[in-house]
């Protein structure tokens, strides 16, 4: 054996000491919360989401107690409305989605053998936004101010301020704030999967969990923004009286339903696929063999993601849409059963082919699949429009949705909890308590929700706070209530098990004998993530690669050291994971937390109509963001550094190879999707209203065209600046950027000018024109800020022709801005004039 | 045909090619929905034979079939023996191609599903 530097134990000790020092978490009663290590943030995130789940569960128990017997008066109708709205909203927005993001933030860096994901500060920001928004929304029930319009908040009852209190604003603004944090996490996860894989982990070697997370994060990018657009219109109507959903002024409540369900249906898969992803990790472990049909699973994940966007109208079967439209959505609903079935068959086949060990996680996996399949079958039933007309808004739907959500989200997560607990805490959970909890929950779920199918078919509508005795469904409801308490006691057993865990002894490393990278984690975890970044040659490296664990631990792979005292990780190429660069990661900082607080202030103060203070919050947010960005993309002290094995990598990259560029690109995809939601609104009104745009004055053609030309000028100037800058002409580039910023500001003026004389409160047509133009104008302002910021970076010596990430990133923004301006101004200025 | 297919093998396969078939499905779906919504809202019905719809459907199916053919050919690029899960260039190509092929199949079925109602139902009510 050759003598290798890493054979020297002293060297390894020194390296470990350096790594430990760099990755040391901040301490102190306050500063420990400024940590930005995803390992730690992920744990806070998970605990918080779990807490919200327990809270929402208690709300459900109160509801079930109220419904136990006919004509009960435990809670008033008003309280009941708040209970089910908050229960549903919290379960979906504050538990299911954040939980998957939280778990992924913990698991992904380890699965990908990365020191950390690329934007740890962004994760911290997401977490603090989530905590703040969640407490705000959840806490409202203690002030009798919780939203009460159901989790889908259908207007017009919810937009009429005389019929709904502050609760509706809390829902809209609080949850929009949380959606921002969900999108932030999605950006982190997508870039993490694409760019932070270890060398050699080509796309076909990627753990299936990473595939699923990639797919789900992309889904979030396309699903959440339409809801954000809807929220925007909703609040415009509530706060300013712009009649988007008010039929008496040309609006239409159905638009909300469209925007909500374009989000709402994919949401169901957003919370289901990550749980399936957990199965894809634990089933091979307990079958002790590779998962069968790897490309089939990728097909299933990608296929489900796509098809799920074609289903939204199946929630609107009873709204009187043309039958032909319903048929399209019914067809897509049936088609999505194909990829779902494929995944389940791949799992069954793997178990069949392996020698199965019936452990607790596997018990949860199979039990929850059984429950999910029952929910899936009733799903196929309600996807058929005529059946849905019978079952719509009855307890049959409540039964269906809970079978799917509990079988598809909650129980799989519990299975994952048992599986991954040793990874995160170093301790195992009790086998016995785990089995007891499972069986109690399994019986409880069926006892709670199976009778609901029957009570629904007997005619019990959902969302009623009580029912008369002569409907003869008292016994069914009593059974449901008993079941829900049974289920809750199962959860209690599980919680007790978790509480007892600290008293238990350490588990061995990799206790289940798994083959994937995350199990490199040691029971006495270090904060550095991974000792050295491995070279991957197969899908189950711990099983397949010789001496793999020892080599990682002895620092024999890449980047075993932190000579410069900086937190670092390796960036690789998207397809083949060829190493392209080493990046420096964010270190603990109060900035993410402060930004979250400032942004939270904007949303929360707006809820209480404190607009001036909210505006201050907006300025503070902008300040925080700029301050935060100022020390990113720093020019490194040297060009390259060795990562071992004779490979030198640059310390700075810009353009499509860089994580920052991807983050910008992805964020702009989300932004463009939100904008398409608004454009969809415009054309939606046009299709259903014969006189749309005819009875009220429009913006004319002149000013929108001027604004458009100026916006395009701003874009051209930026692209030109990037080109001349990369050729070394720094001063002309600065001048072009200044011109670009001035053009953007002028376009802002012209855009506003075009709104002169349009009264947005009068009719939906001027209102939607206002929204399109305001949206574009705000983007022009942000563009101008970015251009000025880039000039400042250049003047401060933080950007040079060789180090031009800032300029390249704002060019991406400008591409999207130009497209936005084009669509918005052509629509507003030409469309109604064209005589259509 | 053969020669074209052989040339297809040299096409660069990326993560983007993977989503061509389902994106085609999405475009067709959106087109169908908009076409039905607009013709029902503005005309109250569609003409006897929905020409635009038929053309759109055939075009979508064609794109999917071509993507599938190319993928099928690429998936058979010779190289290491089955099970094709090594960390080599060929196996990565074959994996992406095979997944694309599977997605073409799914997208084809989904487009046919979407088209079926137009043939079966023939008005807006
Ligand atoms: C044992 C656990 C649970 C019980 C006993 C329960 C019970 C209930 C009840 C009684 C309702 C109100 C039905 C109505 O009056 O219309 C409801 C609604 C709902 N639940 Fe659950 N639930 C549980 C778990 C969950 C989970 C895990 C999720 C999601 C991850 C969830 C999501 C929802 C949603 C979205 C609604 C609709 C709310 C609305 O109509 O606005 N539930 N649940
Ligand atoms: Cu749905």
UniProtKB/TrEMBL annotation, chain A:
InterPro entries: Cyt_c_oxase-like_su1_dom, Cyt_c_oxase-like_su1_sf, Cyt_C_Oxase_1, Cyt_c_Oxase_su1_BS, Cyt_c_oxidase_su1_bac, Cyt_c_oxidase_su3-like_sf, Cyt_c_oxidase_su3_a-hlx. Pathway: Energy metabolism; oxidative phosphorylation. Its main location: membrane. SUPFAM superfamilies: Cytochrome c oxidase subunit I-like, Cytochrome c oxidase subunit III-like. Residues 17-519 form the Cytochrome oxidase subunit I profile domain. Gene3D superfamilies: Cytochrome c oxidase, subunit III, four-helix bundle (1.20.120.80), Cytochrome c oxidase-like, subunit I domain (1.20.210.10). It is found in: Cell membrane. It comes from the Bacteria. The chain crosses the membrane at residues 42-63, 83-112, 124-146, 170-194, 206-228, 268-287, 294-314, 326-350, 362-385, 397-421, 433-454, 474-500, 611-630, 702-721, 733-752, 764-789, 810-831. It is an enzyme of class 7 (translocase). NCBIfam families: CtaD_CoxA. This is cytochrome-c oxidase. It comes from Sphingomonas insulae. The gene is ctaD_1.
UniProtKB/TrEMBL annotation, chain B:
The chain crosses the membrane at residues 52-75, 95-121. It comes from Sphingomonas insulae. The lineage of its organism: Bacteria, Pseudomonadati, Pseudomonadota, Alphaproteobacteria, Sphingomonadales. Keywords: Membrane, Transmembrane, Transmembrane helix. This is Uncharacterized protein.
